[in-house]
Amino acid sequence: MTGKISFQTQPRNRLMRTGILIGAALLSAVTSVAAFAHDGATGVVKERMDSMKIIGKQVKMMVPILNGELPYDPAKVELAAIKISSHAGSAFTELFPSESTDTPSEASPEIWEKWDAFSQLSDELAMNADMLKTIAAKDVASGSGDAGQFNDAFRNVLQTCKSCHQQFRSD
Ligand code: HEC
After folding, report:
1. Ligand 1, residues 165, 166, 167: which to mutate, most atoms within 8 A of Cβ?
2. For residue 34, which of 25, 46, 49, 68 sits 20 to 30 Å off, Cα-Cα?
3. Residue 1 lies in a domain
4. CA distance 56 to 28
5. Residues in the ligand 1 pocket, defined by CB under 6 Å
6. How many CA atoms are closer than 13 Å to the CA of 88, on its beta-carbon side?
7. Is residue 131 part of a domain?
């Protein structure tokens, strides 16, 4: 994955570089999932893993846009943002009944000790995805292909993934 970060191909500003690093770090976290055998998951654990996988798929589609490797397609981004939002907020937290850490779950027991912080991050993901959706919808309407606002909004989404995983997902 790191091989894809090609600073030499074109000059990038500092913000952009931060975006690339966040994107690359997150993507490797997302793709590393394939190395685990999660087929044994059942019940809510399976449901929330499936939700996260759907979210992960949307993110994977958008990271190359952030990295300037794919053109910004606001219609696609709008759909992706809607999917993320629909699997975040309470739709996500309701898949965490107390102490549901059955193997192969990577959910940290801290989720239930710090439930408010956990659900706040899930709400934050929904809000940031909604913001991304609003920006993409505006760009669809105006026919704009300028990824500037997309980049900022998507970076906020990625930051939320990272914050929650750091605190509440144990590998
Ligand atoms: C509110 C907290 C929270 C947020 C925000 C969050 N995640 Fe997660 N994520 C988790 C937890 C907890 C797990 C582990 C669930 C389990 O194994 O039971 C997880 C697991 C995953 C997995 C592994 C799924 C599997 O098959 O085991 C992927 C992929 C993932 N998250 C991607 C993302 C992406 C991409 C984002 C941001 C767009 C994100 N997550 C935002 C809490 C969060």
Report:
1. 165
2. 68
3. no
4. 11
5. 30, 33, 38, 45, 48-49, 52-53, 55-56, 59, 84, 105-107, 118, 121-122, 125, 157, 160-161, 164-165, 168-169
6. 25
7. yes
Whole domain around residue 84: which residue ranges? 12-168
Say how far apart CA 50 and CA 46 lie, in whole Å. 6
Find the CATH number of the domain harbouring 114.
1.20.120.10
Q: Do residues 135 and 72 touch, judged by C-beta distance below 8 A?
A: no
pLDDT band at 28, cuts 50/70/90?
low
Q: How many domains does the chain divide into?
A: 1
pTM (2 d.p.): 0.85
Query: 26 versus 70: which is more confidently predicted?
Result: 70
Q: What pLDDT score does 170 carry?
A: 87
